[in-house]
Amino acid sequence: MKDLLKIMIFLSIILIVFFYFDSPTEENEVLEAPPTMDPLPAKDIVEKDLDVERPAEGISTYIGQDTDEWLNDYGMPDRIEPSAFGYEWWIYNSSFSNYMMVGVKNSKTVQVYTAGTATNAAPYEIGQTLDELYRFTIVENEITVKYGTNIYTFNLGAEDINRRLLVSFDEVYAQLYIDVEDDKLEAVRFMDAETLIRHQPYDMMFVGDLLPSITPSSSLQQSIDDANAKQIVDLTNVYRLHHQRKPLYENPSINLLARAHSENTAKKDFSSQEIELENLNDRLTAANILFDEAGENTATQYFDAAEAVHGWINSSDHRETLLSDKFNQIGVGVFGKYYTQNFIYQEPASAEKQ
């Protein structure tokens, strides 16, 4: 009898271990963007003139130019989407190797982001090593920006120096997004001074006035959230291709599930009541979504889709999920600054069933 009891206890332990370590669902912790301090007024800021000439070729040359010039060279975008910063996004995603997002305001090109390996991002190349970047890039932990009569200084922390460099050219600023595991350039964002100031991606001090904040209406915010979700789907596949992984198919049902989770996570953070979030397995089951494997990445406080995806790629657990070969479908939902990626594997339907 005692031997039988020991065997039952042993089998119970084995089942518990199997359940926790061989679960078909993987949920990573919420990834929070690196915090930035509120902008601080300063009595005086010394302007640093680095005398770095603006690139003579590539996508950065369009910053500040009429959009007609861009359209003449690249044609109409595949999508046009709103942003939370007063510009429109023109999305070019017909070719992931030339993937670009162009910020347009008042018929001017104010920003160009690319993660496309075939895009001319001179003086940079997507995929080049950090050592190659350092050979010809002046790396500063303080960048001074003049806009009108106001002066702003951005302070980069140690993590920023390793992951998100900021480079100042003549009236153009470049953010360099580094993959810290591979020590390679994953994406580049060129922008004008106003766009950089509105994004405020680093700690900032200023002399003069802050730019007035932009508060989207509730309906516009919904459209911005939908745009961020689509961009995250795009960028996930772009980053997967960078690392020789197959792209994922977008599943509209999972999009809805991810959107609901982002909204519920926001409610949990801001509600005075205790709100319990369902686990991924229960959410998928309740939505009647069949799956063999499932995974989830969540993030908060990133100011846009590109920043959120870059955060995930530089967090080991989130990176593993984002690049996993176990999944073949993706759904993304965004609610304000709350982001959810859901991944599943579904056995492809047989020809007879189709």
Automatic annotation (TrEMBL):
InterPro entries: CAP_assoc, CAP_dom, CAP_sf. It holds the Pfam family CAP. Residues 263-297 form a coiled coil. The keyword tRNA-binding does not apply. The keyword Coiled coil applies. Residues 63-202 form the CAP-associated domain. Residues 233-342 form the SCP domain. Keywords: Coiled coil. Gene3D superfamilies: CAP. This is Cysteine-rich secretory protein family protein. The lineage of its organism: Bacteria, Bacillati, Bacillota, Bacilli, Bacillales.
